[in-house]
Write a structure and sequence with these properties.
This protein has 285 residues and is mostly helical. It has helices at 3-28, 33-52, 59-85, 91-96, 100-112, 118-135, 144-164, 172-194, 198-203, 207-232, 237-240, 247-259, 265-281. It is globular and about 50 Å long.
Amino acid sequence: MPIKHLLILLFIMIAHGSAFPVAKLALNNSVPPILMASLRMGLVLIILIPFWKFKLPPKKYLNSLLIFSISMGVMVYVFMNLSLYNSSIISPIILGSQLAIPFGIITSAIILNENISMKKWVLIFSSFIGILIIFFDPALVDNFLGLFFASLMALFFGLAQVYSRQLKELDTSMINAFTGLFGFFLLMLVSFFIEGDTMNNLKSINLDSWLLISYQAIIVSLCAHLLMFYLYKFYTVGKIFPFYSLFPIFGILLSYLIFGEIPSFLFAIGGIIVIASVILLQKVR
């Protein structure tokens, strides 16, 4: 792989890792989690409109684009924010997102009829064992709901990656614009009915929170995702996705620098099992 592509991968991993502590900072500023996810997608949509120009994709891509947009633009971000909102410790949430890879392999088998070898089943099982070990950490007693939402986030991220494979021929600005479109309107509607008081919530968002939300939209949702799709034009998902297992390292490091989180012994053991399993999952056949 050329150095240029390796540097792009490094940027993507740092961006994905930083998304969690940055989102937690905004949530700590009393931004409602569902509303924040909607605003993030709304900014993505606004920025991409000049490139998208309201073009519709060929009919053969519509179903895959619809499922990808709802999975990524709605489900992933809402469960990410809900997991962080319901957790006082965010490092396990970052690590829990790694389940996207085994979930992606399982959904590929279900949707695309891809074969899963016995070695892969063992590694999938071991990745869940690693998460289970983390669950027994006494420090996480009040964070189980957050970990549950993190698992749902990983499930839908894995599903989105399966359908992204069917969208390689589409313009990346169109894909991300549709993601922003569905994410913004559907999440705004959900926020209106569940969180309520939408106008007052919007007025109460301060400049710092807007900057944090803008970082998530521009750096993570736009730059990182557009660059990921750029790499998919040169490499298969199986070639790129193993690097996804590196982003928790950056996220956990930032969590330590920003929030002073120090991983426990059980977290370290479970984390090593999860990351090792995920890396090996991409190497075995």
